[in-house]
Fold these 3 entries.
Entry 1:
Amino acid sequence: MIDKLVTFSFAEAFSQKYDFFATIFEYLIKDYNKDFGKYAEYYTPHSIASIIARIMVPEGVQNVTVYDPAAGSGTLVLALAHEIGESNCTIYTQDISQKSNEFLRLNLILNNLVHSLGHVVHGDTLLSPQHLNRQKNGLMKFDYIVSNPPFNVDFSDNRDTLAGDIYKERFWAGVPNVPNKNKDSMAIYQMFLQHIIFSMKENGGRAAVVVPTGFLTAGTRIPKKIRERIVEDRMLRGVVSMPSNIFATTGTNVSVLFLDNSKSMSRQS
C-alpha cells in the first residue's frame, strides 16, 4: 500500500476535478448495505451525477448560484460545479447530517471551491432553511438546483408544524399525513420537491430532482398538485427514467425531473 501511495500522482488526481468521497461512499454502501441501506437512495452515483450535470448546463454559463437542499457529501453539486467551471459558480447547500457536511467541506477544499465553504450549512432544510436573500426578508432564489432528497423518512414529529400557516407558501401542495403504521414510509421527497420549486429563480432558474418513478403517475393528492403546477407553469423540460437498481441497496425505480422556470416557457402555446 505504501509503495502504491509513493508512486500515486495526487497532482494529476486534483487536476481531474475528482469527487474524492463518491468512490469511497459507493464502496461503503456496496459492502456494508446493512448499515448504509437507509441512506442508499439518498446518495447519487457519480456517473449519474455527471450525466445530470451535462444535461443541465449550457455553454458559457458564468456567475451563477448552485443549490442542493439535501446535499450529502456533495456529489451532485460538485458535478455541476465542474461542468460550469469552479470560478463561475457559488455553491449553497444544507443538510441535516453534520458528518455529511464535514465530508462536503473537505470535498470543496480538494476541488478548488473554497469560496463556497461559508455556504455549507448544517440544519433541517424543511423546518429552517438558512439561505436568505440579500434583504434578509425571504429565501434566496437560485440559478441551478440539483438534488436527490431522501424519499421516505419519518418526520411525524414535525408534520403539524410544517402544515402551519407560515409554511403554506412554500409547501403549497400540502404535507403528507402521518400513517397509522410504518411512519418511515412518509414521502418526505414531496416536501423537498415543493421547496425546490419554490427556491428556483424566476426568469431562468433550472432544477434537476431525483424522485421515485411512481411520482410520475401517483394519483394521490400531493403528487397530483405538484404535477399540475409543473404543467400549468410549463416548467417541465424533460424526464429521464433510470435503470432498475441504480442505487446500491434499494430496488426503488427512480427518475430525474428536469425543470426550467424561464418566463419564455411559461403559459405560452
Note: The radius of gyration is 18 Å.
Entry 2:
Amino acid sequence: MIPALDARGVHFAYEPGRPVLTGADLALYAGRRLAVLGPNGGGKTTLFRLLAGALAPDAGEVRLDGETVRRTRRGLTHLRQQVQLVLQDPDDQLFAASVHQDVSFGPVNLGLPAEEVTARVDGALAALGVVDLGDRPTHLLSFGQKKRVAIAGAVAMRPRLLVLDEPTAGLDPAGVEELLAVLHSLHATGTTPVVSTHDVDLAHRWADDVAVVASGRVVTGPAGDFLGDAALLRSARLGPAWAPAVHRLLDAAGFTGARPRTAAELHELFGPPAVTSPGPVLHEAVTASAHAWRTAKETHRGP
C-alpha cells in the first residue's frame, strides 16, 4: 500500500552541526490513526513541519501519494490542500479579528466561491462544537476554545490528513475527552488524524499505530506492540503504558483476551471485586499492576 504521505531518509538541522533528524522515515496511511511520541526537543514538531511543507529537509524527501513534494508554489499549495498542520499553541495560529474570519481564511485563499466558503466554515464550526463562537473575537476565547477554533480552521480546508502537534497539551481531562471525540468523528468521516503526545496511555487507547522519535530517527509499529516495549519507551524518555501491564497480569490470572484500555473499561468488564466472580484475583492483579506502573513511573522520572 502506498502511504498517503511519507518522509524518507529525512535530515534536518536548525544550526550546522546540531542535527534534529538524521535519516528519519515515517509513513502515514489513510485511515490509520497515528500517535507520534518522543522527548521534548526530540524532533516531533520538526518532523510535523517537514511533513506539512513548512520546512524543507536538508536531505531526503517528503512524498504525497508516492510523488516527491516539489518546493514550488503549486507543489506546496497542493500539499496543503491535502495536509493541514495544527500547532501546539493556538495563539501561533489564530490571527483574524473573529472566529468566523479566522476559520474562513484558508478556503477564501483557495479562491472558492462564497457559497462553498460558507459551507466549509459552517461545517468546520459544527464539527468542533463552536458554532456559537462564530462572531467572537479570537483574543477573548479561552485556551480550550482557541484550540478548537485552530482545529476548525484546518478542518475547513477539508484535508485528508490532519496533523496536530500535542493537541491535548494544556487541556483538562474533560477537554481531552471532548477533543478525542472530535477526532473520532473526523476519522469516521474520512479525515486521518495524526497527533503528537507525551501521554503513552492516551496513545495506547486512541492510536492504531505509534511512531517513536528519538536520537534523530523514527521507529513505527502497531500501538499495542510498541507501547508494551519498555526498553523502546525508555530510549525516548517515556514512561510505561498502564494498559499493557494490566493485560499481562490479567493473562497470568487466567483472563486471556480481556483487553481494557482504561480503568473505566476494566470496571465495565469485571465490576467491583467484591461482587464479581473474578473479584479477588482481579483485585490482586490490578493492585499489583498499579504498584508496578507507579514504581516504573517514579523510576523513570528519577529524583
Note: Residues 279-301 form the longest helix (23 residues).
Entry 3:
Amino acid sequence: MIKKSLPLYILIINIVLTLILSEGNISEAGFIAEPVIKGIEFPVTISFTSDGRLFFTERCSGKVRVIEKAITSTPKLLPEPVFRFGPVSCYFERGLLGLTLDPQFGKNGFLYVYYSHKGSGHDDPYRHRLMRITVKDNKGSNPVAILDNLPIGSQREWGHGNHNGGNITFGTDGKLYLSIGDVAEPENSMDMQSFAGKILRLNSDGTAPKDNPFYDQSKPDSPKSYIYAYGLRNSFDLTFHPATGILYSTENGPDINDEINIIYAGKNYGWGPDRISGKQNKKGLEDPIIVYPSTIAPTGITFYTGTKYPSEYRDNLFFADWNNGNIHRVILDNRKGVVSKVDDNFFKHDDGIVDMVEGPDGLIYFTDQGGIYRLIYKH
C-alpha cells in the first residue's frame, strides 16, 4: 500500500512546492516579493504618479521609461521611452542615477533626473547634470539643465567612477534635495567650495534658497550656497518622515561603518581627509543613528504610511541593501527619530536591492538590477 501511494504523495508535494515557489520566498513576517516587471535594464530609481503610473530610469541606456497601471495585476510597460538622456557614461557606478516628479506633476508635468554625462571633449566635458523635462501623454520634451557642471571623478571611461550619489527628492518644504558623493576624493566632503560629498537643497528652478544654512548673498551660485549638509561619503538615498519632515539617508561607508543618518541643516557628518566614519562622539560631528561595522551597502530607504500591512508597520522606516538583498525594518520610538528596534532580517530578496518607495496603493515597491517588485503581505 505504501509503495503504491508513494508516487501520488510525491506528486502532491511537488505541486504544493511549485505553487509556493511560484509566489516567491515568504518571509517569517509573512511577506513575499511579487514581480511587477522583469527583464528590464537596471532600473536605478522609480517614482509613482498618483494615478498609478511608474516612471523609472535605465542606468546605461539613458532612458526614462513608464509602466502604466503599475499598481494593478496587469501592468503595461510602454515600448517607447518617455525621454532619452545622454550620452550617458555608464562606467563603474555612473549612469542615469536619479529621478523624481514635481509635487505639481499633474499640472506642470515636470520630471527631474540626475545623470553622468559622457563628454566629447574640452567644450563638452564629463560631468553630472541635474535636468528637468516636461512630460505630456507619457512623452518628455524641453530638456533644461537646472544645475550643470556637477563634479565627476574623471574625464574618461576609467579612473574614479564611483561615489556619485545622485538621489533627488522633494522635501515637505517643497524644495529639491540632491545627494552627491565624494566622487572617490574624501577631501571634497569638507570643501565648502565643492558640491561633492554633500546633500544640496535647491529651488525647483535650480537656484539656491536664501534660507540655506551657508547661503552666500554675494555668491548665490557658489557650491556653498547650495549646501544643506556636508562631510558625507556617498549618501545613496533620501526620505522624509511623513509627520515630522525630518530627513533620513543611507550612507555607504569605506568597507566598514555603513550608516543610517538623520540629516540636519548645516551639520557635519565627519567624512573627509581623515576618513572618519561611524559613531565618534566628537564635538562638531553628527553621529549616525545606525551603524553596520561590516559593509552591507545600504541603498533605498522609505517610510511606510499605508494600510495594506498590519498596523504595527505603519510609520516604520525601511531600508534595503545591495550586498545581501535584505530589507531592514526600523522602529522609531518618538518624533525625534530615536531608534527603538532594528530588524535586519525583515525580508530577504534573491538579488541586491537598489531603490525602494511606497506606492499610491499602500505597498512597498523595490528594484533590483533587472526588475521591479512589490512587497505583499500574505498572512
Note: The radius of gyration is 21 Å.
